[in-house]
Input
Amino acid sequence: RGNVMSKMWAGRFAEELNKEADDFNSSISVDRRMFRQDITGSVVHANMLVKQGIIPKEDGDKIVSGLSEILSDIDLSCEDIHMFIEEELTRRIGDAGKKLHTARSRNDQVALDFRLYLRDECEEIIKLIKRLILSFVNKAEENKDAILPGYTHLQRAQQVTFAHHLLAYAMMFIRDIGRFKDAVKRMDSSPIGACALAGTTYRTDRKYEAEKLGFSSVAQNSMDAVSDRDFAVEIMNAAAIAMMHLSRISEEIILWSSWEFSFVELSDAYTTGSSIMPQKKNSDMAELVRGKTGRVYGDLISL
Output
């Protein structure tokens, strides 16, 4: 697979690809996480090709069956996850596997996988944020009558309830859910069928694929379909704001659990100690959340 002649794009090349160049080009260590979405998209694409009479039903059935067997196999020697799946499929079922790439390019394939993957990830993130909100609500319910000093400029300002303070964070995370949902809404169009940038001469059915993959529409412009990554920046922005909120509550926890404040005591299950100072009970989890916030800000700016 390191030989250039085995690459799908190798039609005009005669020399073997330098191994260091091949390794530098490889993205499979990153995009392997999208293999489930890639196979899902490929199964629907194969069914569409059969439906439109572009490939025989017998070949389509072989492709779908072969893809279902590959789900658990990942080979890091391949250039990318998309090529791995198609090469492995061809190895297992023969030349019928090569027909899967009919009427699509890696460009629209990657754009599709990325949307499917981020849609799944956002759904999981939203579930986790809802669990977090429920934790705040439950803890607030337990402490409706607990009085807490409210601070401005780190000076005691007005009294509030502990519950009221906790629910301020619940409101922040509710807004975070809205931001993730908005970002998902704007990537709710299928790019498949745009191919490299200007579509295909095959009579494909883009709406069929979009519907089967859970999209509400198809991308209206083929060039925009394969080049658009706005949704990724939006999702990173939502993640960065959510991390800001996590950093805020983490700092509160660090202060509240200190000897100077002593408003709360953290569970032993979520704290660490000191190898030299036995009285210490460190809020490491909260400190690490604050530290990791910077990574997400960096990822947003990089993107």
